Amino acid sequence: MMNRLSNTELPQPAPRSSEPSQLAVEILERLKYRIGKDPKVAKPHDWLTAAILVARDRITDKWMDSTRKTYSTGAKRVYYMSLEFLIGRMMRDAMTNLGLMDEMRDALASLGVDIDVIAALEPDAALGNGGLGRLAACFMESMATVDVPAYGYGIRYMHGLFRQQMADGWQVELPETWLAHGNPWEFERRECSYEIGYGGSVETVNIDEEVQRYVWKPAERVIATAFDTPAVGWRATRVNTLRLWAAQPIDPILLDAFNAGDHIGALRESNKAESLTRVLYPADATPAGQELRLRQEYFFSSASLQDILRRHLQQYPDFTSLPDAVAIQLNDTHPAVSVAELVRLLSDVHGLDFEQSWDIARRTFSYTNHTLLPEALESWPVPLFERLLPRHMQIVYAINAKILIEARRVRYATDEAIRNISLIDETGERRVRMGNLAFVGSHSINGVSALHTELMKETVFADLHALYPDRINNKTNGITPRRWLMQCNPDLFGLIREAIGDEFIDNTEALQALDAFADNADFQERFAAVKRANKVRLAKLIQANLGIRLDPSAMFDIQIKRIHEYKRQLLNLIEAVALYDQIRSHPELDWVPRVKLFAGKAAPSYHNAKLIIKLANDIARVINNDPAVRGLLKVVFIPNYNVSLAEVMVPAADLSEQISTAGMEASGTGNMKFALNGALTIGTLDGANVEMRDWVGEENIQIFGMTAEDVGKARAEGHNPRAIIENSRELSQALSAIASGVFSPDDRNRFSGLVDGLYNHDWFMVAADFEAYAKAQREIDQLWTKPAAWYSKAVRNTARMGWFSSDRTIRQYAGEIWRAG
């Protein structure tokens, strides 16, 4: 047996130097001994890997210290379970937080290597889709920053979300190959492997005369293996762990079949296992797609919970202390099956009775809701759920019986309330409601903005809130200022630092001191120069990739987010067409030069969203090539939106489009990133826009349109979009142009369905809000012609956004939900 030495008996390595000369030596060592390259023949990607490995060694030292500290103090651990972690490139983030960026730049320069060149080669980790995944990444950085011991749990997608290309203006989905050449940041943990089962049957085993145990015998099994990536907090206060699961088959190859000549069939188990972690959000328009997504969600949920329980037993004698030692946060409904899985593991595997298991689970879990959209509150057909997870179906029914009996006894609930509370939707095809399961299985349910939280109580969870009135609370989202100011906008960061000192670096709310400079002409001039430089950088990227030339002196009006009808890219595009008509019709007026920039991906099976992308590209083709516009308006759709592209676009924005249908955006975090970087917001009173207005001042944000209450009333009472359209000359002309094929001469009916939807029901209030939106845009034009007034508001946006730091959000989670840190 191997002798285990205590930490005090182990030889301790000397502290690693941060001197550029020593870093250069280590880079050459990694290049030679880890990559096998002589510096004379090393390629840029070799230098990138070598530099990452040198930084990773220093991070690992901090990582081990953080782990030992957690064990020695018995600190409560937080486990953040999310199907997405949109972490983006890690090199700048990790080195900045480690305090090593300048030294690494000098070290590489001494070797003839430009750090900016090699940093651009690092692939974006394709582990997320949009705001949900980026929030999880910001939270991982902030949990380490504020010294909360935490693990993030997710899936190590081989391809993740698709890479978006354009073919004649249409979105084409291609595999993202971010892992093609490995990931130098991660560590494989072969010892952390767990069996995950599917299908099969459940048997009852009599333990004694009074006790029965349920034994699930899965028909299929795969292995989940952990890969760990360190998550570095600011100033390396703590290094936490992002643990991602890869799927492997029990038997990688059926050798008999292979030798018999069935070379494809011999690999079917391997291919089936690997399909679990190939793609994020496989299209679920088919039964096969739905099954794969449910398999994915159970796969990472079960592996994570098995890992949590194993770690708990290393420190504690049993699971009665689990809620005191562990907090598990469910990021949306994707990991909601964890509620049933934890009950199964505690009762079936570890021998607790159902009541104990349920009590422990409920006190351990908390749940973040991110949407009020019914289609986004996941539900699964009962036959699918029962076939794939038969024991979990039994547990769901047992939990449901407990909750519904309680509801009848405590509330004397109506039949309608019982139907809404039930974990099983009986209105059509019977389905398991994952949002309801997450709600009843958690001691805390939080929204992500003040408005969203109140709407949760009034809409999707109204009856559950009445049953459990103390569970719903608000935790308004935030963003990490390290990535979204310090790293993506270093010139603005430097300007602020010169003006107000260093306090804001560790306490973002100290940015308020910048208010004193908002009307200072010299500071405005320098602020505007930084903005222009960022616009020049974006313009160069667009010209290089798309061949479109932009004037950096024009207003850069940017809408970047997932393409969805409720986010209303369509409203923005219709207004672009109306403005196009006005510029051509009234050339004598002084029009403000404007560039409307779009980026975002549409779900592969979301027809209308993909049609909106095509419309954007068709409109762009016509407007950008019309000499009558005289360059006063351009429209650009930039393909393959990701974190790295956002880091270029956000600092370049003059105007931030946050125009979702009121009451439908839970929070948004893009709105915060833009405002922090000195963009003005045009938006509805939706999500965190409401709180942003309160913080930056209503005079410094352009709010328009219907409120959530207005939208609810219009939907309930009915509204007449046709009359609205016919009474608006600009709107009706713009829609007529779109519907008649002005922008699609090759298929004149291409967009008729989109336009008919606005005439006939206008669920997302595009027509209803058009006049208010167009009026707000012309007010923005007027403000743009007064640079002193514009930059006064822009500076105040930056100065007053400090509260929207994810550090503040995490401190609220830690203090009010997790009781950790």
TrEMBL record:
**Segments of this protein annotated with the region Disordered:** 1-21
Question: Which catalysed reactions does the entry list for this protein?
Answer: [(1->4)-alpha-D-glucosyl](n) + phosphate = [(1->4)-alpha-D-glucosyl](n-1) + alpha-D-glucose 1-phosphate
Q: One GO CC annotation, please?
A: cytoplasm
Q: Which CDD domains match?
A: GT35_Glycogen_Phosphorylase (cd04300)
Q: Which cofactor does it need?
A: pyridoxal 5'-phosphate
Name one molecular function that GO assigns to this entry.
Answer: glycogen phosphorylase activity
Report whether Cytoplasm shows up as a keyword of the record: yes
Query: Where, subcellularly, is it found?
Result: Cytoplasm
Note the superkingdom of the native organism: Bacteria
The cross-references to Pfam families, in alphabetical order and at most eight, read: Phosphorylase (PF00343)
Per the UniProt entry, the Enzyme Commission number(s) are 2.4.1.1
Q: Does the keyword Cytoplasm apply?
A: yes
In the record, N6-(pyridoxal phosphate)lysine modifications are located at: 673
Keywords, alphabetical = Allosteric enzyme, Carbohydrate metabolism, Cytoplasm, Glycosyltransferase, Pyridoxal phosphate, Transferase
Compositional bias (Polar residues): 1-10
Q: Where is it chiefly localized?
A: cytoplasm
Q: Which family does it belong to?
A: Belongs to the glycogen phosphorylase family.
Protein name per its UniProtKB record? Alpha-1,4 glucan phosphorylase
Q: Which organism is it from?
A: Sinorhizobium medicae (strain WSM419)
